[in-house]
Fold:
Amino acid sequence: MGCNNCSTVKDGQPRGCRNNGTCGSDGCNKLTVFDWLSNMSMPDDKMAFDCVEVRFKNSRKEFFRNSENLPLSIGSVVATQAKTGLDVGIVTLTGELVRIQMKRKKEDASDTDLPKVYRIATQRDIDKWQKCRSKEDEIKKRSREMAIIIGLEMKISDVEFQGDGSKATFYYTAEDRVDFRQLIKDMAKAFGIRIEMRQIGYRQEAQRLGGIGSCGRELCCSTWLTDFRSVSTASARYQQLSLNPQKLAGQCGKLKCCLNYELDLYLEALKSFPATDTKLKTEKGLAFCQKADIFKGMMWFSYKDDPSNWHRLSAEQVNEILDHNNNGDKKIASLEEYAVENVSSENLLFENAVGQDSLTRFDKPKRSRNRRKKRSRKNRNKQRRNA
Structure:
């Protein structure tokens, strides 16, 4: 979803707001909450909730109290209270939904020490804020060079200036603890501002920077996912996925968060499904499970002496055979008695009625035209000689 400025110019080229997620209409923002109470008015005896949610660079959001009762709406650029000085951000949520969000993030709505919204940002505040934002890429590049010269094993992934330009926060990732005291001294001397270093995890780094996943969509962590649950390889095993780290890892280098999305459905289906290490005893021999399809409810078994020949059984048939084995009944003769019921003739869904070219037409080597010309020339000369 784009903002109103994300249109096209007269020659058809995309215009774009060029604000990289900080457009005023809040259409390009990350982790945006849909205000489904926006068209409802408050009762006469109720006062609107006096806190607002303000978004700063990338996915950083904080709650502020509107003690001055300013007429704020989604997309308003405001000057807010900071630890020292002021910061500039965009209002992303107002009204009762802010109370719900604060409860969800375990923030105390009655806290008197909650930072305040000073005023609606003036043009001077916005100009200063945009000027600081334009310097972030260059400062990030220089700070990385300083860290390399000192020999620190860390990666500075993002730089965020405070709205008044008095402080810059450097977000970095590192495997171990890093002593960056010398780096702070060098950066404070070079940039002339106060420096704050903040270590983040690899998932938080992907959330802040964003990107496109292997599915072709924007990363879940930068668009709507707010909590990072632990993802283990057991999630992939339950879903019968190949343990290929190149396919299972996301841009953060960790296992993809989407591996947990369908895990509960698989666990529910596996409750009534036979285990993959099931062994079936028959008169023909012992059979082992080779493959299972949870969606179709089918399992493939092969005999110990004939592992290349697979027999397709349903989950109900496997449970029936297991009951016979566990109760000490007479063993079944063979798996073929059950597997023959599952043989179905495949219906042809597509025919080459129009006469399309074969997909393997390019696999055949082409005959050279020069060779054909030489051959025809030889035939002509041969005929002339005979004449």
